[in-house]
Amino acid sequence: MPNGLTISWFGKIINHINSKIMKFLKIALALALGKFFLISCSDNSEDLTGCLEVLPPVYLSFNVLSAESERDVFFSTPPEYELKDLYFFRSRDTNRSDTIRPKVEGSGEERFFRIEVDNTGRSDTLSMNIGANSQDRLTVTIKNTDDVCPVPTIDKIHFNNTELIPENGKVKIRK
Q: 169 near 61, Cβ under 8 Å?
């Protein structure tokens, strides 16, 4: 009988130790999760643990105007060009294999073009083509917002090395 009591007593000690270890692990896990949630909701812009890794798209909205008449060359009546005449290529697309067509937004004479800008780097340079006309260079510089979880946004826009200033969220490209 003494051996049976020893094993039973030893089993109780092991069970007691196991329950203490499990309690410790549960507390440690709760503290770790608590710290994660506190960090993700903190105002500390140095600590971006809770920010999303998927960046929202950045769009450039614009109209193309005649340099002489200031009329919109696509959306005036009558238009100088058809919508299909406007297309872009990214500067790194040396084979010109990925034609980018801008989307049309708005209605009537309030229409404008919108194109998605590559927000994975500091700038995106596009070759803009209207019909058979020469290529123009459109460069969009990207910056991050000063939010707790920064997102990319447009910083500067240059058309053929001339800075364009947005008005009401759009730029006017004079051609």
A: yes
Characterise 113 by phi-psi region: left (phi > 0), alpha (psi -120 to 50), beta (else).
beta
The Cα–Cα gap between 118 and 139 comes to: 11
Q: Which own/partner pairs from 162-169 qualify as long-range (CB within 8 Å, at least 24 positions apart)?
A: 169/61
DSSP 72: B
pLDDT in tens, the chain (175 residues): 455 555 566 566 666 666 766 666 566 555 555 555 445 444 554 555 678 778 889 999 999 999 999 999 999 999 999 999 999 998 887 777 788 999 999 998 799 999 999 888 889 999 999 988 778 999 999 999 988 888 899 999 999 999 999 999 999 999 8
C-alpha angle 49/50/55, rounded to 5°? 100
88 and 113 Cβ atoms separated by less than 8 Å: no
Ordered by start, the domain boundaries in the chain are: 1-50, 58-174
Reading across the β-sheet that carries 171-174, which strands appear in turn? 103-105, 112-117, 58-65, 171-174
What is the phi/psi pair of residue 29, to 5°?
Answer: -65, -45
